Amino acid sequence: MKTGLKNTLVLVSICAVMALLMAITHYATSPVIAENERKATQKALQQVMPEGVNFVSVLLPEGAPDTVTEAYREDGGGCVFKLKTTGYGKDLIIMCGVDASGTVTGTVCLSSSETLGFEKTFGEQFVGLDRTGAAAVDTVAGATKTTTAYRAAVADALRAAQMLRVTAGEVQ
Asked: Between vectors from CA 67 to CA 99 and to CA 44, what angle results, nearest 5°?
């Protein structure tokens, strides 16, 4: 009985020390992680909207597509959207810039659970297109699920941009 109690106390002590060390590590690294995420977001914003200035996070309008997870507005009236969709694998994360006239300024795949292939360069086909043009972009044979999901996500970004312009009173 005494051996069992002793073993339990040793195990609980080890767990408590490990939990304390993990908490200290988390406390020390979270500001660095947050700063790195901020820098990565700023880089992606500039990549999909190179002419954008002073990006500010905005609330998504009610009824925004489910794929749109974040929205940013810039001084020129353009918007950038972070989108999460599912292709062949899950969690395809895309950033898409849309200028004030409703034209795609750029898209980039931030992460994918698949081996980055077509989704790495597929977004280049959307640059300069509006809703009609983006819907006409062909999918890639052999990557149909992923490129279809990508195309749908870009369409959702264009729809969300329209909703933000209407919410802001820019379009009637």
From this structure: 50
- What's the 3-state SS for 84-122? EECCCCCCEEEEEEECCCCCEEEEEEEECCCCCCHHHHH
Cβ within 8 Å of residue 85, ≥6 positions away: 67, 92, 94, 149, 150, 152, 153
Q: Hey, which residues does 70 pair with through a beta bridge?
A: 82
Q: With the C-alpha atoms ordered 14, 17, 23, 24, is the resulting torsion angle positive or negative?
A: negative
Let me know if 81 is exposed, middle or buried by CB neighbors in 10 A (0-12, 13-18, 19+).
buried
* 3-state secondary structure (DSSP) of residue 57: strand
Cα dist from 145 to 7, 54, 72, 117, whole Å: 53, 35, 27, 13
Average pLDDT across each block of 10 residues of the chain; the chain has 172 residues. List them in order: 86 94 93 87 87 87 88 90 82 89 88 65 77 70 72 89 73 44
Task: Quote the CA–CA distance of 119 and 111 in Å, as a whole number.
Answer: 9
pLDDT at 18: 96
Contact 67, 84 (CB under 8 A): yes
Q: Mention every residue, 6+ apart, whose C-beta is less than 8 A from residue 113.
A: 89, 90, 91, 92
Task: Tell me which residue of 97, 100, 94 sits closest to 147, measured CA to CA.
Answer: 94
| pTM of the shown model | 0.75
